[in-house]
Amino acid sequence: MISHLVYMEGKKDESLEEIPTSVKVVPFRQMEASGREYLEANCSPPKSDDLAILMYTSGSTGIPKGVMITHKNLITSVKGFNDVLSPPSFQFRERDTYIAYLPAAHVLELATECFLTYLGIRVGFSTPQTLTDFSTAVKKGEKGDLKVLKPTLMVAVPVSHFNIQHIF
Question: Residue 99, class by beta-carbon neighbours within 10 Å (0-12 exposed, 13-18 middle, 19+ buried)?
Fold first, then answer.
């Protein structure tokens, strides 16, 4: 049962009046303000050596292991992208779109998304099962995410690059 409903404010929506009184209805701006107040009162910025994320990898032995990624590790990755992909070697454009299809738990995907989000680049999410017209989760006659999103940016591991190069 729904207990809370957060909505985007705009012109008055009469359908809000039909929501049962047992459901707490909150405008998005109010939720943002509440979150900001909570952060200011209860949270301090992380230190560079604080844990940012715990990623699991099969590693070279095939036995999964947790890898501690600190804020410094993550920021260093973003800086590395910035150093390599800065003008004049590369120029991002306002119309660029990145297609994110690697698992979110893949460190290359995480670092790429952090970097491109920092730049304000659009990110479209996909999966290997929906990437191409012939992917396993795409119905016959339907378009895969590459054709729908028409990305201008993509990060790929070698096996994926080999599998999709015929599309371009």
Answer: buried
Helix (H, G, I), strand (E, B) or coil at 50: coil
Q: What is the pLDDT of residues 46-58, one digit of tens each?
A: 999 999 999 887 7
Count the Cβ atoms, other than its own, within 10 Å of residue 114.
15
Global model pTM greater than 0.90: no
d(CA 40, CA 34): 10
Which DSSP symbol is given to 165? Answer: G
Q: Which two tokens stand for residue 40?
A: 């200011």
- State how far the Cα of 46 lies from the Cα of 49, in Å rounded to an integer: 8
The length of the chain is 168
Residue 162 contacts residue 154 (beta carbons within 8 Å): no
The low-confidence residues of the chain, meaning pLDDT below 70, are 12, 59, 159-168
